[in-house]
Amino acid sequence: MTHEDLGTFRAPNSQNGKATESLRLGLVSAPELPEHIINRIADQLPELFRCHIDDRHHWQIDCLTDPLIGADDSTADVIEQVERVKHDNGWDYALCITDLPLFRNDRMTLAEASENLGVAIISLPALGISPLKRRLREAILHLTNEMHHGSDSKDRERQQEHMDNSQQARERSGVRNRSSRALMGSRLSERLVPIRRVTPDDNHEKDVDVRFISATKWPGYAKLLGGMVRANRPWKIIPAFRRIVAVAFATGAYGLIFPTLWKLSAAYEVYRFTTLMIAAIIAMVIWLILDHGLWEPRRYANNNRLRRFYNLTTVLTLTTGVACYYAILFVLFLIAVVLFVPINLLESTIGHSVSWLNFPALAWLATSVATVAGALGSSLESDETIRNATYGYRQQLRQHKVKERQARDKEGEEEKRQSPEEHRNQAERQIDERQIEAQQGNDQDDQAP
């Protein structure tokens, strides 16, 4: 695995303790949001491990960003991939934080761990929207405990006794988890969408000792979608709307010159404003999907369920971005209406007295009309920005990198398989070719006048 493929690698400063032996945990994260959160909590983990897992060891945390972990849509071989990375780096344990949804036996999976392999994986979107930092820290702490102390019932009972005796220390550390069998502490999200702990006994899953799944199907899917939208970071695409905002504002400002919008804003009820706003946002989202090719077709995804999640996440991400664009445009029109529309002229145009509510109503109508009439047909400033905010496009990039890596590995294996005699013959051929080229050059020099 080359340094180019692995991305960034760093080792945070560990706490100096009274440890007698050093243990290394590697955190392998996907780029962007998982990497960002891991970088924020990595320096806290050595002290947490020493206090709440095992104080006989000096814990070292290594952070590795690998965009290719989990590039396969099936995600069934992630444990094997992480185990290989763990072996290559000489870690005692390895934990992967992926931004992909995980499904095992048609159940949404939050995390799973293997005591024998010393490997675990966390699906960051399955943890929900917020607070991700605290949830991820508690999940890493618990999975490392499972790998280090074991996952069977006796091991968990011993750890429960230890946790009961160290409740005050856990409270001081901000760790809510009070159970040796729970992935995280109980919050409102965990009460609405319970997490179930299972220990697979299938021979086909002998490498997995413990797994945490969503106990409910549809609420779990809703929580997963929220986490996937958060992983897309929709606020990153808002700067790409600058051109559309300019075009829409120019169109709406021109429309405000004519009295038609003034009269309509005074005659419309709230439900008409709301319907027009929803229609404008939906039309804008559909246009962006079609214009930038953001819909994940069937031929690009091997798993239909993942493809549906990708497309639904794209729609929700764009809807969030367009809603922010709509709010910005509304504020601009509200300022313009308040500053440039005289109240006396507005009253004479609509034929009755007005209140302060007429100004936001006029701005609301202008925003919807400008979105439909001006923004549709316009393109975003950065096509790459909005594409990177979709799961399908990121997966295609990862799979392309996987193919490049496999091609390089294949070339390296072919070179290694060549016998010493073949290497010698190849070197002799290269020498002969250079001698022939040199001789041809000398002949040309002799023939020159």
- Number of H- or I-type helical stretches: 18
Largest sheet: 9 strands, mixed
Mean pLDDT, rounded to whole units? 83
Uncertain regions spanning at least 5 consecutive residues: 1-17
Helix/sheet category: alpha/beta
Helix content: 55-70%
Cα distance spanning the termini: 56 Å
What would you call the quaternary organization?
single chain
Q: How would you spell out the order of helices and strands?
A: HEEHHEHEEEEHHHHEEHHHHHHHHHH
* Shape type: globular
**Strand percentage:** 5-15%
Explained architecture:
Helix 10 crosses helix 13 and helix 12 packs across helix 13 (304-340). Strands 1, 2, 3, 4, 5, 6, 7, 8 and 9 form a nine-stranded mixed sheet that branches. With 449 residues, the protein is an alpha/beta fold. The chain is built from 18 helices and nine strands.
Task: Describe, in short, the structure shown.
This protein has 449 residues and is α/β, with parallel strands linked by helices.
